[in-house]
From TrEMBL:
InterPro entries: 6-PGluconate_DH-like_C_sf, 6PGD_dom2, ApbA, KPA_reductase, KPR-Related, KPR_N, NAD(P)-bd_dom_sf. This is 2-dehydropantoate 2-reductase. Residues 179-300 form the Ketopantoate reductase C-terminal domain. The lineage of its organism: Bacteria, Pseudomonadati, Pseudomonadota, Alphaproteobacteria, Hyphomicrobiales. Keywords: NADP, Oxidoreductase, Pantothenate biosynthesis.
Amino acid sequence: MRIAVMAAGALGGYFGARMAAAGHDVFFIARGSNLEAIRKNGLKVESVLGNLHLPEPNVTDDPAMVGPVDIVLFAVKLWDSETAARLSLPLVGPRTRVIPLQNGVDSAERIAPILGADNVVAGSAYIATVLSAPGVVTHTSQFARMVCGRTDGKPDDGLKAFADAAQAAGIDISVSDGIDRERWQKFVFLVGLSGATATARQPLGPILADPDTRAFFYSLMSEVVAVGRAKGVPIPENFAEDRMKFAEASPPTFKASMLHDLERGNRLELDWLAGKVVEFARPLGIPTPANNAVYAMLKLHRMGNAHA
């Protein structure tokens, strides 16, 4: 398959590298120091599921040099979604499927008007990974799962072909006919993890060990469940309890990407995580005091050190 990774960060780099190592034509879109490092040293993945090194991957900063592909793994930071979608237009042909694997819950809806409603599907990724250095992806969780599906729930031959190829490449992937529920269920944990770890400046283990921060983490997730259910998403009412069990089984060193960004002085995805929960909740009349607190505490950091 011809696959483009937009862009070759921690998440896109991981899944793209797995597909490239399995023999598929993968084109990594990168820029700046990451582009230069990949050109010079290749793309390295340090993973608990097995390391790999692509010595000479296809990498460019110009999607027009690639042309239409079968699959676009769309994995840019949330504030770059529309800009990256416009840059991705040369990658998209009539049968291309664009799979957003970003944080947040509304990526497909944001980029579909640019790249085509039939081309854009929805996706979620469950993985703990970070770009530890330019050209180096470090994956620390035992899980590395991808779920994708059309928002209308219909079967899709292009997605099935990609899922079959990804499974053969050793990737844990499934195609869902209920992707809206999948997205929101991921969003529940992500909002809790990002809000709790970034405000506490601590990984998950110490947060779960302290009764006050543990309760705060649970409240963040409970508020997302309430908002999702009010919007008609079929999330189980007790889903926050389920995510607490998942958290307890996760590595105690687990940090959200938002905490990594905060520690590095980078821009934060706050407005599309806790901020989005608050935005959705307001017209529904649902109180979200925990997510309000996260937004207030991190708001002055959301543009990174360059804008402090």
